[in-house]
Amino acid sequence: MSGGPEPISAEGLRVAQEELARLRAEREKAAGTLRGEDDAVGDRADEADELRRAAEVARLDDRIAEVEGRLEEAAVAGAPATDVVGVGSTVSLRFADGEEEVVEVSELAEVGERTLVTWDSPLGKALIGCHTGETVAYDTPVGAASATVLSIGGSSTR
Fold first, then answer.
1. What region, left, alpha or beta, does residue 133 occupy, with left being phi > 0 and alpha being psi -120 to 50 degrees?
2. pTM score, two decimals?
3. Which residues cross the membrane (predicted)?
Protein backbone atom coordinates (compact mmCIF):
# COMPACT_ATOMS: atom_id res chain seq x y z
CA MET A 1 0.00 0.00 0.00
CA SER A 2 1.13 3.58 -0.52
CA GLY A 3 1.45 4.60 3.13
CA GLY A 4 -1.06 7.42 2.67
CA PRO A 5 -4.83 7.29 3.03
CA GLU A 6 -6.09 4.39 0.93
CA PRO A 7 -9.56 4.24 -0.61
CA ILE A 8 -11.79 1.26 0.06
CA SER A 9 -14.10 -0.54 -2.34
CA ALA A 10 -17.82 -0.73 -1.73
CA GLU A 11 -17.50 -4.41 -0.84
CA GLY A 12 -14.50 -3.75 1.39
CA LEU A 13 -16.48 -1.00 3.12
CA ARG A 14 -19.38 -3.40 3.70
CA VAL A 15 -17.04 -6.04 5.15
CA ALA A 16 -15.36 -3.50 7.46
CA GLN A 17 -18.68 -2.10 8.67
CA GLU A 18 -20.02 -5.60 9.37
CA GLU A 19 -16.84 -6.50 11.25
CA LEU A 20 -17.10 -3.29 13.29
CA ALA A 21 -20.71 -4.04 14.25
CA ARG A 22 -19.77 -7.61 15.22
CA LEU A 23 -16.78 -6.43 17.27
CA ARG A 24 -18.85 -3.82 19.11
CA ALA A 25 -21.49 -6.44 19.99
CA GLU A 26 -18.80 -8.87 21.19
CA ARG A 27 -17.16 -6.12 23.23
CA GLU A 28 -20.45 -5.13 24.87
CA LYS A 29 -21.13 -8.75 25.79
CA ALA A 30 -17.59 -9.32 27.11
CA ALA A 31 -17.54 -6.04 29.07
CA GLY A 32 -20.85 -6.98 30.70
CA THR A 33 -19.16 -9.99 32.30
CA LEU A 34 -16.49 -7.93 34.05
CA ARG A 35 -16.88 -7.25 37.74
CA GLY A 36 -17.26 -3.70 38.98
CA GLU A 37 -14.72 -2.04 41.28
CA ASP A 38 -16.82 -2.86 44.35
CA ASP A 39 -17.29 -6.56 43.44
CA ALA A 40 -14.97 -8.89 45.31
CA VAL A 41 -12.94 -11.39 43.31
CA GLY A 42 -13.07 -14.91 44.76
CA ASP A 43 -10.25 -17.45 44.54
CA ARG A 44 -7.33 -17.50 42.08
CA ALA A 45 -9.43 -19.25 39.43
CA ASP A 46 -11.98 -16.42 39.59
CA GLU A 47 -9.17 -13.88 39.40
CA ALA A 48 -7.62 -15.63 36.38
CA ASP A 49 -11.00 -15.76 34.65
CA GLU A 50 -11.51 -12.04 35.31
CA LEU A 51 -8.07 -11.25 33.84
CA ARG A 52 -8.85 -13.36 30.76
CA ARG A 53 -12.13 -11.49 30.19
CA ALA A 54 -10.38 -8.12 30.69
CA ALA A 55 -7.72 -9.13 28.15
CA GLU A 56 -10.46 -10.08 25.67
CA VAL A 57 -12.12 -6.67 26.10
CA ALA A 58 -8.74 -4.99 25.52
CA ARG A 59 -8.16 -7.08 22.36
CA LEU A 60 -11.60 -6.12 21.05
CA ASP A 61 -10.96 -2.45 21.85
CA ASP A 62 -7.71 -2.58 19.85
CA ARG A 63 -9.38 -4.19 16.82
CA ILE A 64 -12.32 -1.76 16.99
CA ALA A 65 -9.89 1.17 16.97
CA GLU A 66 -8.03 -0.37 14.02
CA VAL A 67 -11.20 -0.84 11.93
CA GLU A 68 -12.54 2.62 12.85
CA GLY A 69 -9.19 4.14 11.85
CA ARG A 70 -9.29 2.33 8.52
CA LEU A 71 -12.82 3.58 7.83
CA GLU A 72 -11.79 7.15 8.69
CA GLU A 73 -8.75 6.84 6.41
CA ALA A 74 -10.94 5.59 3.57
CA ALA A 75 -13.26 8.57 4.02
CA VAL A 76 -10.29 10.94 3.70
CA ALA A 77 -8.90 9.09 0.66
CA GLY A 78 -12.13 9.35 -1.31
CA ALA A 79 -13.11 7.12 -4.20
CA PRO A 80 -10.70 4.58 -5.68
CA ALA A 81 -8.75 5.65 -8.77
CA THR A 82 -9.98 4.48 -12.16
CA ASP A 83 -6.70 4.90 -14.07
CA VAL A 84 -4.48 2.61 -12.00
CA VAL A 85 -5.21 -0.41 -9.80
CA GLY A 86 -4.98 0.28 -6.07
CA VAL A 87 -6.66 -0.73 -2.85
CA GLY A 88 -10.38 -0.24 -3.36
CA SER A 89 -10.26 -0.71 -7.13
CA THR A 90 -12.83 -2.80 -8.97
CA VAL A 91 -10.97 -4.61 -11.75
CA SER A 92 -12.27 -6.60 -14.71
CA LEU A 93 -9.82 -9.35 -15.62
CA ARG A 94 -9.42 -11.90 -18.41
CA PHE A 95 -7.45 -14.92 -17.29
CA ALA A 96 -5.19 -17.00 -19.54
CA ASP A 97 -7.96 -19.61 -19.98
CA GLY A 98 -10.27 -16.90 -21.38
CA GLU A 99 -12.46 -16.68 -18.28
CA GLU A 100 -13.42 -13.14 -17.27
CA GLU A 101 -14.11 -12.02 -13.74
CA VAL A 102 -14.60 -8.78 -11.84
CA VAL A 103 -12.68 -8.54 -8.56
CA GLU A 104 -12.20 -5.88 -5.93
CA VAL A 105 -8.77 -5.23 -4.45
CA SER A 106 -9.25 -4.99 -0.72
CA GLU A 107 -7.41 -5.02 2.56
CA LEU A 108 -9.85 -7.42 4.13
CA ALA A 109 -11.29 -10.58 2.72
CA GLU A 110 -14.34 -12.40 3.91
CA VAL A 111 -13.96 -16.17 4.02
CA GLY A 112 -15.53 -17.63 0.91
CA GLU A 113 -15.92 -14.24 -0.82
CA ARG A 114 -14.54 -14.94 -4.30
CA THR A 115 -14.73 -11.40 -5.66
CA LEU A 116 -12.42 -9.86 -3.05
CA VAL A 117 -8.69 -10.04 -3.69
CA THR A 118 -6.51 -8.79 -0.83
CA TRP A 119 -3.80 -6.32 -1.79
CA ASP A 120 -1.12 -8.59 -0.30
CA SER A 121 -2.21 -11.80 -2.10
CA PRO A 122 -0.18 -12.93 -5.14
CA LEU A 123 -2.83 -11.61 -7.56
CA GLY A 124 -3.34 -8.43 -5.52
CA LYS A 125 0.40 -7.67 -5.47
CA ALA A 126 0.57 -8.22 -9.23
CA LEU A 127 -2.39 -5.92 -9.88
CA ILE A 128 -1.39 -2.95 -7.68
CA GLY A 129 -0.10 -0.17 -9.92
CA CYS A 130 -1.32 -1.74 -13.19
CA HIS A 131 -3.24 0.06 -15.91
CA THR A 132 -5.95 -1.08 -18.31
CA GLY A 133 -4.55 -3.39 -20.98
CA GLU A 134 -1.60 -4.66 -18.92
CA THR A 135 -1.07 -8.37 -18.35
CA VAL A 136 0.17 -9.51 -14.95
CA ALA A 137 1.85 -12.74 -13.93
CA TYR A 138 1.48 -14.22 -10.46
CA ASP A 139 1.93 -17.52 -8.66
CA THR A 140 -0.89 -19.78 -7.49
CA PRO A 141 -0.75 -22.97 -5.43
CA VAL A 142 -0.92 -24.94 -8.72
CA GLY A 143 1.68 -22.88 -10.62
CA ALA A 144 2.15 -19.68 -12.56
CA ALA A 145 -0.89 -17.77 -13.86
CA SER A 146 -1.61 -14.57 -15.74
CA ALA A 147 -4.46 -12.14 -16.23
CA THR A 148 -5.07 -9.09 -18.39
CA VAL A 149 -6.65 -5.97 -16.90
CA LEU A 150 -9.71 -5.22 -19.04
CA SER A 151 -10.98 -2.27 -17.03
CA ILE A 152 -10.56 -0.45 -13.74
CA GLY A 153 -13.69 0.96 -12.16
CA GLY A 154 -15.63 0.91 -15.43
CA SER A 155 -13.09 2.15 -18.00
CA SER A 156 -13.21 -0.85 -20.32
CA THR A 157 -10.93 -1.63 -23.28
CA ARG A 158 -13.45 -3.97 -24.92
1. left
2. 0.59
3. none
